[in-house]
UniProtKB/TrEMBL annotation:
Transferase found in the keyword field: yes
Annotated family: Belongs to the glycosyltransferase 1 family. Bacterial/plant glycogen synthase subfamily.
Protein name: Glycogen synthase
Domain of life: Bacteria
Source species: Mycoplana ramosa (Mycoplana bullata)
EC number: 2.4.1.21
Amino acid sequence: MNVLSVASEVFPLIKTGGLADVTGALPLALDGNGIRMRTLLPGYPAVMQQLTKPRKIATLTSVFGDEMRILAAQHAGLDLFVLDAPGYFDRSGGPYVDTTGKDYPDNWKRFAALSHAGAEIARGLLPDWTPDIVHAHDWQAAMAPVYMRYTGLGHIPSIVTVHNLAFQGQFGPEIFPELGLPAQAFSIEGLEYYGDVSFLKGGLRTAWEVTTVSPTYAQEIRTPEFGMGLDGLINARASELMGIVNGIDTAVWDPATDPHIAANYGPGALRARSKNRQALLDRFGLADGGGPVFCVVSRLAWQKGIDLIAELADWIVAEGGTLAVLGTGDQGLEGALLAAASRHRGRVGVVIGYNEPLSHLMQAGADAILIPSRFEPCGLTQLYGLRYGCVPIVARTGGLADTVIDANEAALSARVATGFQFAPVTADAFRQALRRAFTAFRDPKVWARLQNQGMKSDVSWKRSAERYAGLYSSLLARV
């Protein structure tokens, strides 16, 4: 079975968040299920620089009249198609924003071009490979099934996976005439969304199947609270909606072999974590106060509940905890965290930015990871935490609820608990979960049991890949 994945980022070539981790790991996980997935992504400078001997396999004209090339390449075990369109993607900023952090004004054109290229590959653009299914990820690729539906390719199965419904690719109606679609596509049955054009809404409307990245999130987005204005459409498509929790690449994230940490270890050998703990404290300029070391590895945003961490930082220190934060995002939240670090030198450390090797060390050295997200479609950092014996303290939402077993009395007695959950997402509820964590940490046997149980969790892609394979097979059976 041939599946074309269309995505705006793929690890290890280009990454801004969890989307890249998923699109980089899923093709490898599917390989053992008789599925060959090839991934179409944009030719950003960072991507082009890492390709080894790319081959031009096709030339096409974009819906906007520009000539583009499709390059074939392999990288880190991935089969890639790269959309070489310098006018769209050869820029000095990030994938979506310029060097000042502002969205590129032509993002609609850039990712419509990517989606259109995906549809043309489905049409048979490539002489030696045609997909049986097209799998588009998030709003940046969601136009692929739209182009397929409105250009005579609706008979080819397509899937849109929503990694975060908050990002919908919404643009003014003036762009519609340039998209190369028939007039009926700008309607409530197509792209029209409160008078604007929504790429994600179009994909949700036209794809054969809609998936999200956890079962709980699939149910949450059917409600007004989490549906971001699209809950009506999602409920209308409930019979074609499926939640499949993400996995992680357990070869990249393996404390027994990880080259980014100070000492390797595995389940039942947690004493070696102490070297990583000290290395983490040294890296952040923190003293060991004997209490738990909490870490945060996150985009610093309201969605992630970072304001609650800033609000409780003084209390965490007063209770004997230490806090290490790695992330970038909202300037106000960055400032609040840096102010906490200034007030509590040696007890709160903050690194603004993203550093992949440091994120590994934080999972290996911290005692617990804080993830108080207001909504979290899946989340990956809690899976890394489980894998590394870094106990997750999470809000009870989305994939966090699906992957962390709360250390309530029954779960502790049954020895199945792997972390701490709390709800609602308020400072008081978060503080109560932290109190429970402080109490558990004071009992080394209880804490070690939580760590070891988490490390036994299956956070790999195996089961999730099997569910995707089953979904693909069911779609082909409908052709």
